[in-house]
Amino acid sequence: MIEHEVLDAGLGDADDDDFDLSEAFDSQLPDNRYLDRELSWLAFNQRVVELAEDPTLPLLERANFLAIFASNLDEFFMVRVAGLKRRIVTGLAVPTNVGRAPQEVLADISADAQALQLRHADAWTKLVKPALSDAGIDIVSWDDVDDEHRAKLYDYFHAQVFPVLMPLAVDPAHPFPYISGLSLNLAIRIRNARTGRQEFARIKVPPMLPRFVELPHNGTTVRFLPLEELISNHLEDLFPGMEILDHHTFRLTRNEDVAIEEDETENLIQALEAELLRRRFGPPIRLEVGDDMDTVTLDLLISELDITAQEVYRLPGPLDLRGLFDLAKIDRPDLKYAAHVPTTAVAFQPAEQNGRTDFFSAIRKGDVLVHHPYESFATSVQGFLEQAARDPHVLAIKQTLYRTSGDSPIVQALIDAAESGKQVLALVEVKARFDEAANIVWARKLEKAGVHVVYGLVGLKTHCKLALVIREEDGVLRHYSHVGTGNYNPKTSRIYEDFGLFTVDDQVGRDLTRLFNELSGYAIEKKFKRMLVAPLHLRKGLLRHIDKERRNAIAGKRARIRIKVNSMVDEQIIDALYRASQAGVPVEVWVRGICALKPGVEGMSENIRVRSILGRYLEHSRIFMFDNDGDPQVFIGSADMMHRNLDRRVEALERVVAPAHLKELADFFELAMSDATSSWWLGPDGEWTRHSVGEDGKALVDLQDRTMANVQRRRRARAVR
User: Fold this and answer.
1) pTM for this one?
2) Which residues are annotated as a binding site for ATP?
3) Of 238, 398, 478, 638, which sees the most CB atoms within 10 A?
């Protein structure tokens, strides 16, 4: 039985030796078989814009999607575009799977990004903003404000804004100021009234102030003025005695990717802190300017910032629509998604009303699969760890932490456990992009509480989501394990769709024990029973499962592959799926973001379908399902199909075995891939087509709404029993 488990996971030593990795490549496959990953990422963000353009969605949610687009695009430039440019400048090989020169790829990215940003701006100015105005939420310009309200805004400006502004002049005594990444700025040309000399000045719009200033109520309409408009209409107070000639908004994006040579540093934390300081001064990679900016000002910015014309994006105002996140605070439930309160997973519902759940007893009855945010993170993962922290029979807790909130009850549970004398190990990934500084802060907080904090393996990010609780029961130690697809973050758990598996299975417990030993010590473990672990074995294990489906199809046996990931980029995995398709295996790929795979190409991928679903929740779980001639092999975990996940991260996929859980995951996948469900379909040319309305003109099924209803139905069924 144990040997069978090893083979199922694809990690046994003998099995690894027998499987030839080179079989994942096929010389008969065409050279142009991949879509460009960067352009595919932009296509993902186009789908976000399409949600903002959808008149059937609640208005404030549409505004939120515009803010999400802006935030996503910032990160794309700061990391992906910056990385490509850095490699070109330094002469490093540029990873590209489309056989084109890097400069060609950058030119295409620039063109697509420009078009997409203009579409994004149009969605705001022509669709969402007018619709909000009709609904009683008006984003106004200075010209729309009457004298009475201008006077009140003047008082607000001098009381709340003027004191924190820092106008910076540019002249022989004042060099061109440093422009921080993602800051919104005013470029101002002024004339000295005494000398007649023209000067340039810059004002940074304070990021700590509300982006939209609320005006006194005018009847039932709530009105807001962009902060930069308030400032630009009081420039005389900032430059007394000067003539204001012109002013324009601009915004700079810098390279904020972090690169550390871990094998060359003795102290990872110190090296990371130094690199974070350097990040602030990364080279410019994008300049956004208002479409009304004059050539004199623009030429000055291009010259002083050492940026190329290709890196300039002229856009209609306002710039930086991340500020639309603030509109979510407006109390208009009629303009938002209907409130959804997560239920407690059926297995974790207390036996008595107002009673307390005994998580250990519930997990001993059988594996528990929890689906967030439909089922509560607080009454499952958080409650499990909090009970473990206070339970006197718990001896040790081991956990990985990739991203979490600074005031997280998860962190507090680990602190409470350590302070009560338990052995506590926290593997903190301080290299989690854009969360590095926060992770350092609470890692040190954990250390001060007596938690054993380690930072993973040199050269690898620890991305897996694992928790292990060791509990003494009647003189025997039992392992209570949790393997998840998402971070241990109570805040994001409310908007990220993820699965988590709880089990007391000894094989899983031993797997996690071995893996934690590898992460905290020097052990190199090769044998796992119910897990696929990167970077040593996950890729080969998945390729072996894919190839087995191919061989089953050739032999006339049942074969089918279903994969749900955030990104599908890895060439070896894609080639293996092409080979499976050529053998007649039905392949279904459900991807949220990037997809380099071309579906529906005759002779290569006509048996592959690719769908994408976006909505109120971020589809984040990873699921891998192989039919295996009627004995399904199903995994959930943290790994996307990208080089970094398979080769440069510690990732873990856990095999799901309970029949009820296999059915739940299969039903979920069937619903997502159904033609009756609203989704985007990927064509062989890389174009995504939205299917949201049926032939009868009625809206197609919303996957997330239907899943909410399904979870509620399970809860009601439990209550009846």
Assistant:
1) 0.90
2) 72, 496, 592, 620
3) 638
